[in-house]
Amino acid sequence: MRAWWVDVPGKIADRPLRMGEREDPRPGPGEVLLRVDVCGVCRTDLHLAEGDLPPRHAGVIPGHEAVGTVMESFSGGRFSRGDRIGVAWLGQTCGHCPYCRRGQENLCLAPRFTGWDRDGGFADHMTVNEDFAYALPARFTNEQAAPLLCSGIIGYRALERAALPPGGSLGIYGFGGSAHLTAQIAISQGASVYVMTRSAQARDLALSLGAVYAGDAYDAPPVPLDSAILFAPVGDLVPVALRALDRGGTLAIAGIHLTDIPSLNYENELFYERQIRSVTANTRADGTAFLALAAEIGLAPTVTTYDFTEADRALEDLANDRVTGAAVLKMR
């Protein structure tokens, strides 16, 4: 099969991904073989390629927003040949650690992640533990469904972690694949959304989706924020976002990687019960709930498509803020 894999991690401009042929994978117990039709390109894939997330094994194939068709099942379980399914970041959990037992499998002590531990969807075929795959709402095309599987799910969890009160004001820092979906959820629930991002195109998209304000990443929003979500992997924005919060406000940090956070001033950035929450992966319950909500509210992903052979260009465009909405690879 054709595949892209991480050769030697490095700056994306130096093309750390390699494209070539790899042996077709075979499904094991509890797995299905998927013919990948499309795969989203996520900032986590960029972190993997550049080494911010060290590859878990040599030659790992990125991609954890895969949509495809079941070609083979090892044992016959949830899905049958011909079913369309989605593959997300959380690829497996142990099921018996304290966190798994109490419903916090996103904090599992021995997880496996798609496109990091398990080979992912930047390939013609992949295997997936069918207990961690998703049936997809029919209303979404393959290209629309792909970014829902990480960008959407993580944004949904980040919004929950941000503790936004009903009808409240939500600040969003960075406005890429995840943020533009999260904003739509918040607006559908009656929130006023304020977007701060360095991309002029992203600011235009935010306003077109119903944001009441769009400014530069370091600008102060025109009103105090009840909640904020940081999607940009920029630690310098943490104190900026905290200063924008009203008393009792919550900042959720959505990324798996963040540059160092500078020193915080207690009086200006934390006092009056402002708080910071991290967001770590997701549970399958998050994914199921989000996909149902996405179908119910008619979530509208903005997608930029690339041919499979252009995966390295897609990542370079993502690194340089040249992608509006979410990037998606089309396999054929």
Kindly summarize this structure in a few lines.
It is built from nine helices and 17 strands. The chain is of the alpha/beta class and 332 residues long.
Describe the secondary-structure layout.
Blueprint (H helix, E strand, L loop, with lengths): L1 E5 L10 E5 L9 E11 L1 H8 L15 E8 L10 E4 L2 E3 L5 H4 L10 E2 L11 E5 L3 E3 L6 H20 L7 E5 L3 H12 L3 E5 L3 H9 L4 E3 L9 E6 L6 H8 E9 L12 H5 L4 E4 L5 H14 L5 E5 L3 H9 L6 E5 L2
Parallel strand pairs: 10-11, 10-13, 11-12, 13-14, 14-15, 16-17
Antiparallel strand pairs: 1-2, 3-4, 3-8, 3-17, 4-5, 5-9, 6-7
* Overall morphology: globular
Largest β sheet strand count, sense and barrel closure:
7 strands, mixed
Q: Tell me the radius of gyration.
A: 19 Å
| Uncertain spans | none
Polypeptide structure, described:
The chain has helices at 43-50, 98-101, 142-161, 177-188, 200-208, 237-244, 266-270, 284-297, 311-319; strands at residues 2-6, 17-21, 31-41, 66-73, 84-87, 90-92, 112-113, 125-129, 133-135, 169-173, 192-196, 213-215, 225-230, 245-253, 275-278, 303-307, 326-330. With 332 residues, it is α/β, with parallel strands linked by helices. The strands form 4 sheets. Strands 3, 4, 5, 8, 9, 16 and 17 form a 7-stranded mixed sheet that branches. A 6-stranded parallel sheet has the order 12-11-10-13-14-15, with helices on both faces. Strand 13, helix 6 and strand 14 (245-253) form a beta-alpha-beta unit. Helix 3 crosses helix 8 (284-297). The radius of gyration is 19 Å and the shape is globular.
